[in-house]
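Table S2 (text version). Query chain:
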Amino acid sequence: MTTLANTIRRSCLTSGSRGFGGVASRSPSRTPANTRSYSRSFRQDREEQSLSQFKYQYPLAKEPPEVKKTQAHEVVNKVDEGTAIAAIPAGEQDRFDRSGMSDFEIEQIRNQQKALLSKSLSPSVVPGDIVPPSVPPNVASSELKTPVTELTQLDNGIRVVSQELSSSGLSSTLGIVSSVGSRFEQHPQQRGATNVLQLLSFGTPTPSYLDPISFLMDLGGAAHICDTAREQSLHCIDLLRPHVDEAFPLLKEVLLEPQWEDEYVEQAKRTLEFQAVDTPPEAIFGEAFQRAAFEDNQQLGQPHMYLVDNPELTASIVREFWQTRFVNNPKEIVVSCAGIDHEHLVRLAQDHFGHLQQTTTDQSVTSKYIGGQIILDRPAPDGLVRVGLGFEVGGWHSGDLVTTCVLQTLLGGGSSFSAGGPGKGMYSRLYRQILNRYGWAESAEAFAAFYTEVGLFGLSGSTTPNRANDMIRVFAEHLLKLAKEQVTDEELDRAKNMLRGNVLTQLESRFVLFEDIGRQVLTYGRREHAQETCNKIDAVSKSDIQEVARRAIANSKPSCAVVGGELAKEKIISHDDISKFFL
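Corresponding structure-token output:
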């Protein structure tokens, strides 16, 4: 089920870190005129010398190009010294010069050369009789078994889940999904701990050639990913299947024996500050809309991104946060793997993480949707403002989850300019009725965010500062239209087909499969089969979509966020006036 929502908003899953670096600049010095003249003359001499020296290899371009046909022996003595063409020793014949040879002689030479060619493969490339154990057997497709998801719970509460790949692959994706997120940063001094953990997840900020973890990754042909969010974190290693046994000691070292010293945490904080400068406007808008919906005094309303420096965040606080949320909380840990024998995975999980003991109590506090307005004056590089309008919907455990995902796909949207070619959502409702109708709309799309107890659904877009109110009104009209009128059969069928296809296509990825089974088990305690998800998508009706929109508008206040520069806050439509649109 989590793939259903992640498919819609996926962007490649990984949030990486940028290291320190820069380009030194030097202001021009005041050089005497005679010195500048000498430098210019010296430079010209060097250029002329270079042209003279390399005139054979790099001839000057001519229009049209000059083409000359010569034989090798004619140019041997004309080549400048130092060129790449070697002279033919005296007394030897030029093997590439066929002048004076008859067709019979040329064919005779070719036959002699063919006779010298070996018709058997070299022993170094001939397959041997011994098949490596990591190579799966080559059997008929009719004998292949349908992959199933297997789930086992260890004595300490850790759940182990795995699924073999539908196609016999030589790689595996394994890792851990845990309930470590920014919503659990309960104290002000912990703000930003989740972001720091992401940067320091697989080693300290040292060059890769000095980092032992990176060295071991290279040996196993592995790549690592760490992704943190408001409720869950993911630590993943993708590697060649024969090296799975070596990956678990590495995971244990990374997760249970981290080297988080004060200097490393401070370097990570400085890196986050640099990243904050280049934070995409859409990410800042997402943070603002979250605050508008929940206010920052609730877990879901507090910031997830590290946009403001927190001097109180130290290495000891980071270690304490990790110890509480992960090491002492095995019941909220799922060991997941795509492409491995399940019994073997259970043994590895028991050997490396079976000793953890549960001491942490539930720290989640239910966040209640409030609905408000945030106007943030933060100029974007493109000079546009980001505008969003939305309402409360059900969370992960709501029966409206699939219907909301179908509705989001139906509305679709995108940008007024597409660099990847035509056809990406151009028949969705927002593309047809907003982007193609209003020239001032630079982008418009539907969004959804789901959490344990609640979810958010709405419309967001970008426009010029003087059109922010117009975009709010247009968004309000489309949300009201969903509640008052049913969508067409054509729109609904297209949305369900697209969502179903996206889900099945995404699950062909080894990483997405690993993430899906891990997050589903952590969220629901079980993994829903793809066929079951597709059946739920097919069951969505026009009345279901209308009811979700009607209930969202009737039972909650609107949330609105406007982020950008050159904003006259007093001219933006107030929250009270926006609420009157939906009375």
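Notes on Table S2: Residues 33 and 199 are 52 Å apart (CA to CA). The longest helix spans residues 33-53.
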